[in-house]
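Two records follow; treat each independently.
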Amino acid sequence: MAIGAGMSCVKYLLFCFNLLFALTGLIILIVGIWVEANSHPYIDLTDESFYTTGPVVLIIVGVIVFIVAFFGCCGAVKENHCMIVTFAVFLLVIFIAEMAVGIAGYVKHDDIQNSIVRHLNTTIKDYPTNKEVQSTFDILQTDLQCCGIYGPGDWANNTLPIPDTCCAGREIKEGAAAACTPESPGFHTIGCLSKLVPFFNDMAMLLGGVGLGIAMVQLLGVIFACCLARSIRSEYETV
């Protein structure tokens, strides 16, 4: 079955779009996996579910994109109305999911500091008795080279000694490592909050930017698919 010259152009544009669509799926998948892997050590420091669900949604969407791209390519080449409609519906669902992640990313951008402060203030007093809390703070203070929430004074404010992980290096005295103090070499003077907030904000902005940016591209795919499906349907009705 042949279609008009205008719709023939749309057909090949849709086919080319699907190659781009498959590439965007790969980008979404890579970004989702990267954010999930990099945020994992610190994800327990916030009670915002966006930072656990957002990357997972992008990973799932990235995988689905390849399936949807298959429907789009086959539908465009074979001029199959059913496959193109299926492609358009899937694309619209993905568009909505990415818009949701994108909008949530920008919304959560402003909420993260309060969430982190609330969690750290609640758990810091349990550092000596809770192994999980201890492990979280130790990883945080070692990786980000920070100490306490706002600064090293937070440990004294909670009547706790400064942990060893607040020091990058300690002197060895009489075969044992010296206690970590503000005078110790490599002592971390910066609070962890000042490093955590930009870290999570960058994650949120990345998820939001990828979600909204690619969603706009995919909206064009929905328009192309609907135009081609309508043309094919009209050709069938005139036969």
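The next record belongs to a different protein.
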Amino acid sequence: MGCDGGTIPRRDELVRLKKKPEQKDKDAERQFRWKHCTLTQERLQKPIVMCGLGRLYSKQNIIEALLEKDRMPESCSHIKSLKDIKDLNLTANPAYEASHDDKSAEFICALIGLEMSGQFRFAALWSCGCVFSERALKEVKDKTCSVCQVPFTEQDIVILNGTDEDVDLMRTRMEARVARLKAEKKAKADKKAKVKESLPATQTSGSLNKDANDAGPSKPTTSGKPGNVISKLSSTNKRALISDKIGDDPLFKKSKQDYSVAKDPNATAVYKSLFTTHESEQDQKRAHWVTYNPFYN
């Protein structure tokens, strides 16, 4: 039954072919990587950082993952501390700030204004964190950042969201950078150790002299060394000078029990009249001003 009346079936109606696997939309995937955090797949939030492989993250997500080590996936195992990430100095796109449209990128190249949307290759400098398009970075011959004037080397250039070949190159540079930092740290530690080894004698003598000065006047010994006697005399003279200065202080004189305002030659008559030791107060027949009450006196 069927296929009568001149009906001609097509090949795709008679032969069933295997369906081709769905292919990813490369443009959509590229845009997603430039706008979302590699760790949580959420929208990038400032401050934005990068790792040594050139992947973009929200710094808050990295800090939370470092505090909870279980949250750190295997793809981010190379991030062990905040030293393994770098804050990015990004240049805002005026077109995006005006419209907030996803069709335009949020950031642009600081030199030539290319949008950082993934359509053009971008790179960042590990020495300062400034971001440029690869095209602009190649045009700059001087190995100094054009934005902050910080010098950099070829090893400091990190390709952002690069290909698999770029990731392998960035991994090599990252390992070389870490090895160089460890070597510099070890060299500094060795230098400090050598300095300490060359100064024990002088430090010991200095500490002994300091202890001798802190100990105060030493008693004369039977050996009759003049140094101990001189130090004792000098300390005695210092105490005598200090006691003389204290004795000359008018505040110290007034604190003594035998001090009287009436006998003080420096006090004025008006000031002396305020006290009961004045003659005018002794001749009065009314009560003292402290105990005076107009109702009874």
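Discussion point: The longest helix spans residues 164-198. How would you locate this feature using only the token line?
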